[in-house]
Structures are given as structure tokens and as C-alpha cells.
Amino acid sequence: MNEDTKKEDRRVRRTRKILTQALTELLQRKQVNEITVKELTDLADMNRGTFYQYYRDIYDMLEKIQDEMFEKLDAIFSLPKDGDVTEQTGPILMDLFRFIEENQEMCRVLLSPNGNMNFLHRLYEVLRNKCLHLSLGSEPMASKEDFDYRYTFMVYGVAGLIRSWVSRNCPEKPEQMAELTNHLIISGGIA
Amino acid sequence: MNEDTKKEDRRVRRTRKILTQALTELLQRKQVNEITVKELTDLADMNRGTFYQYYRDIYDMLEKIQDEMFEKLDAIFSLPKDGDVTEQTGPILMDLFRFIEENQEMCRVLLSPNGNMNFLHRLYEVLRNKCLHLSLGSEPMASKEDFDYRYTFMVYGVAGLIRSWVSRNCPEKPEQMAELTNHLIISGGIA
DNA sequence: GTGTTTTCGAACACCGTGTATTATAATGAC
DNA sequence: GTCATTATAATACACGGTGTTCGAAAACAC
């Protein structure tokens, strides 16, 4: 029994899981704003009042699900790595794409047109702070703003890759995507 | 009296304008899902029933506002250009950034964390189909998928530039942004 | 001015919301 | 297995926004 589960009753895990599954299913066919708590709990075959024991409303639920995802992601990036390769983006990107593949269903939904802009922004922050520490020093000269725009260009580019990948149901392997990404951000004139 | 206004009663224009202004104001301080029709029409000092004469609900309104924006944008890109410079992205990007600057308030809201993923996707489509016709043929060899990912990387990169720009209240001139963008997509290894 | 169109004010039923209460069932510790 | 604890179910409730309707008043185009 690990750190995550020991605090939770088995019923709580079950309830959260079923609710999340139901929400994922609903999000695949309609927008968040069209989803009611009643509808969700009906689909989950669950008492409506139980929902409110965990979430304030549908949006709160979606946010909490995202919180969980980014907590896990942070945990992955906080793991000690072999040797001292903290400057290498390759292995980090590998971890990233593996994680996204594992959570592709939710990622696909959240990055779709019906998705959530906040999710994209949080992904952007993670990419920027944890995955893509690049030195743009090789460029001859650039202002602070210039640097920032280049960085943004690159980070959003990677976010776009991820969106495209999951929307196609992840046909490429995470390793391939990590390699492609690495290539694009290096040969992409921003390195 | 031009094509756009002749169909509309002055009152209709006024009503639409006031409602749009009120929505823009509300969107700056709260999320879409927290906005009610009652609240909107109260702020607009307008009968609630009048709202329903034009929109089904808040989301419908937001969508129709976006429709208008992209219609205008399409119109701009359909304008005949001097000479035969259809292969040049520079002037097109200039038009694009000028348009975004003019509509920066709404763009800022729609690209913020409280924003609308559908708007980003539509922007993506416009960029891809109208603004960034690039030949990636100079690359030695690439599969169809590879090409697509590179393209996505670039287009999302530009979308990121736009988001970053409007979120800072457009400190740079549209011309500067067009130039920067042009530089990034050309020297950006994708050319 | 006249006919038309829009907005307003008011009323209405409807339904999801959020909360509370009690009873029942599942769980974990022993 | 027993027991105390905790989660879920069942039900009821008031509340408020929704979406629609109607006639009256106002604004409009000509």
C-alpha cells in the first residue's frame, strides 16, 4: 500500500474512478458546459449527492483531475536520474511522452476543440520549466523579449506536437516523438 | 450604407454591440461558465428576453462572436494583393498581426487560461491554410507524417507567439511581429 | 405620420443545483 | 467474526437561472 492509496478507502477510490470514467466518456461527445452533474451521476449510476462530497461542480472536478495529472508529472521529473544528465533534454522528453501516452485519453479530450485552455497553459509551464531548458546563447544577439518570443515559439511548437500526436491516437512510439521533438528544437534554429 | 449594415436596424447593432461589450468585460474577470445570461443583461442594462432574440446561450454568443472574427479575417486574406506575391508570407503576416491587434481585447480573453480551445483551433486552421503555405521541400527527406509534425510545430509556434503578444498587450508593432515570425519560421529549420 | 420592427416588463413552468437528513452498506482494525 | 467508522443511497427541500410567452411601449425606416 503506497503513499497515494493508503489514505483512501476502497470505496472512495472506486467512486472517484467511476466518476472520472464517466466524465471522460461524456467529454468525448459533448462540451463541458453541456454536462450536468445529474447527467454525470446518472451515467455513473451513482447518487448525485455523492458527487458533491468530492467536487463542487463539473469544472472543479475537471480541475482536480488535471491537478492529479500534473502532480504525477512533477513527480516523474523529480525522480533522480542516472548520472548527471540534468542538462540533457532527451531522457526528460522520453518520460514526458511516455506519460502522455499513458494518459492519452484525458489529454486528447483536454487538447481537443472542446478542451481546456488552462490545461494547455499548465502543459506549457511544465514544458518550459521542466523539459526544455535550452540555452539560446548561440544566437548572435537578441534582446530579452526576442529570447522570450523564441522560447515561446518553441514551447508552443512542442505543445502542438503533443496535441497532434494524441489526436491521432499516438501512432508513433514515445521514443520516436522524443527524438523528433529533440530534433526540431535543436535544428529548429533555437539552440 | 454598406453590405454589412444595411440588413440591420440601428437598434439591432446597438444591442449586439452592448451585449458584446458586456461579455468582454465579464470575461476579463471570470470564466465563461460562471457567467449567466441574467448577469450579462443586468450589466448591459437590457431586458433578458432581448438576449434570447440573438443568442441561445452564453456559449452560442461566444461562438457567434468568433464566427464574425474569422469571417473578417477570411475577408482580409481574400483581398487582391499588389502584384503576384501569393507565395510571400510576409504581407499576409502583416495583415494577420494588424487584425489581431485591432481585436486584441477579445483575442487576449480567448487565448488566456480561461479562454476557448476552439478559438485556438480555428486560429490554427487559418494560420495553416492561409498564412503559412511553406514548402518544406528543402529538407533532405521526410515522410508524410514527419512533414505534418514539422508543420504543426511551426503553426503552433506562431500561435504561441500570438498568444504571448496579446497577453502582453501588444507592445511590439504588428510589423515587428510579422518580421519576427517570418524569421522564426524560415531560420527555424522549417523552410 | 404610418406601418413595421425591436425592446421592454412581466409572468410562467421547468429543471438542475446545492444542501440536509436519515438509513443502509461497505470497510478496516482488532 | 465483531465493532466502530465512514461512505453511499434515498429522499426531500428551497433556490435561482432558464427559456419562452404575451401585450404594451418605444424606436425605426420611409
Question: How would you describe what is shown here?
Answer:
The structure is a homodimer of 191-residue chains. Chain A has helices at residues 10-27, 37-43, 48-54, 58-78, 90-102, 104-110, 117-131, 144-167, 174-186. The longest helix of chain A has 24 residues, at 144-167. Helix content of chain A is 65%, strand content 0%. Chain A folds into 2 domains: 1-55, Orthogonal Bundle (Arc Repressor Mutant, subunit A), CATH 1.10.10; 65-191, Tetracycline Repressor, domain 2. Residues 1-5 of chain A have low confidence and may be disordered. Chain A is mainly α and 191 residues long. At the A-B interface, helix 7 and helix 8 of A face helix 7 and helix 8 of B.
Task: Summarize this entry quickly.
Two copies of one chain form a homodimer. Chain A has 191 residues and is mainly α. Helices cover 65% and strands 0% of the residues of chain A.
**Quantity of strands of chain A, as a count:** 0
Shape of chain A: elongated
Helix content of chain A: 55-70%
Mean pLDDT of chain A: 87
CATH fold-level assignment of the largest domain in chain A: Tetracycline Repressor, domain 2
Order of helices and strands of chain A: HHHHHHHHH
Describe the sheet with the most strands of chain A: none
Assigned CATH architecture of the largest domain in chain A: Orthogonal Bundle
Quaternary state reads homodimer
Distance between the termini of chain A: 44 Å
Please write the CATH class name of the largest domain in chain A. Mainly Alpha
Question: How large is the count of helical segments of chain A?
Answer: 9
Q: Structural class of chain A, please?
A: mainly alpha
